[in-house]
Amino acid sequence: MNLLSPFNFHEHNGPVFITGPCSAETREQVLETAKALKEQNTCSYFRAGIWKPRTRPNSFEGVGVEALKWLQEVKQTYGLPVSCEVAMPSHVESCLEHGIDLLWIGARTTASPFAMQEIANALKGENVPVLVKNPINAELSLWLGGIERLEKAGINQLGAIHRGFSGIEHGIYRNLPMWHVPMELKRLHPELPVICDPSHITGQRDLIKKVSQYAMDLNFDGLMIETHPTPDKALSDSSQQVTPTHLKEIITQLIIKHESSHNKSYENQLEFLRAKIDRIDDELIELLKSRTEVSKQIGELKKEENVTIFQQSRMDELMKLRIERAKSQGVSEELIEKIFTHIHSDSVNIQAKIFDQEN
Ligand code: PEP
Ligand code: MN
Q1: Does the beta carbon of 163 lie inside 6 Å of ligand 1?
Q2: Is this structure's pTM higher than 0.85?
Q3: N or C, fewer C-beta in 10 Å, the chain?
Q4: How far is the CA of 165 from the centre of ligand 2 (A)?
């Protein structure tokens, strides 16, 4: 898959800000928000949901096609490019008719390959940028699958939006970020712009600043932040929307990091520390090799003695000791537990192979 495209967010020379209300509610609300965002220079693309995929019926489900005219007005009056969520072929058609500049696919839609395929079919031959939100469940292949369906339909201005994952233990967040999932997407497709949506991740306006900064530290290409003139009165997602003034504060306080630096002293120090890490990693691999050898010897011994490979009591004891040791050394207990789970399971596999061998 080659997603390199003219829709290159990097051209913006800094992060892209997709800002505007969760939902278009009234013409006045839409225009008032756009005016403030334009004046404060906090909007690269104006966003507003027109058809709202609500989890339960009887919630506000969006104004529908009528609101597309308000987005056209935003574009004409303030010169802001406009964006909208599409969930069905008819949405795609209406958005294209109204000259919407950018489309995004919501999390519930990405989760359904049938819906994604229908949207991809409706977009065939069109030249519009499309951003795909992660599916509600933390399945990278489903996210990739959605992007690939659009790419196969000839859409070459593609990007992704990370909005966190629902339905699991959240802690303080509305949707658990599980940052390793978008990071893996970035690793697989370094050319694909990935935007972070701290509004839907946090569900609370007070946490948006922190998550936005974290996304910048991880080199995300932009932010999608829901903005409303009177957030507490919003008809959807009221607790996570911020006022344009609050948004300005969040954006101006962001510290934008660079992927690299030309400062010689920084480069020298980094090179030195990375060489150190490389040496330590080599030693770790040597140690794992020695451990494997010992594990094989134990396998031979157990085979001769007709003893089972796996002994729960030994596994429990080993884990307990390693975690205690980690604690006393100030090493993350979680990390040690994960590493030794893998090491132990590899040991079991090695010994199973020895048991399998003919004498
Ligand atoms: C939205 O952006 O308003 C939206 C519905 O988001 P999500 O698909 O991430 O729930
Ligand atoms: Mn929303």
Answers
A1: yes
A2: no
A3: C
A4: 14
Where among 207, 230, 252 does a domain terminate?
A: 252
- Is 110 part of any domain? yes
Q: Which atom of ligand 1 is nearest to the CA of 107?
A: 8
Q: What is the 3-state secondary structure (H, E, C) of 1-61?
A: CCCCCCCCHHHHCCCEEEEECCECCCHHHHHHHHHHHHHHCCCCEEECECCCCCCCCCCCC
- Which pLDDT value is given to residue 258? 83
> What domain range includes position 25?
9-252
Domain assignment present for residue 123? The answer is yes
- Whole-number Å distance, alpha carbon 288 to ligand 2 midpoint, is 48
Q: What is the mean pLDDT of each run of 10 residues along the chain (359 residues)?
A: 46 85 98 98 97 85 96 98 98 98 97 98 96 97 98 96 84 93 96 96 97 96 97 97 98 90 92 95 96 95 92 91 96 95 94 87
Q: What is the total count of domains within the chain?
A: 2
Q: Does 75 share its domain with 191? A: yes
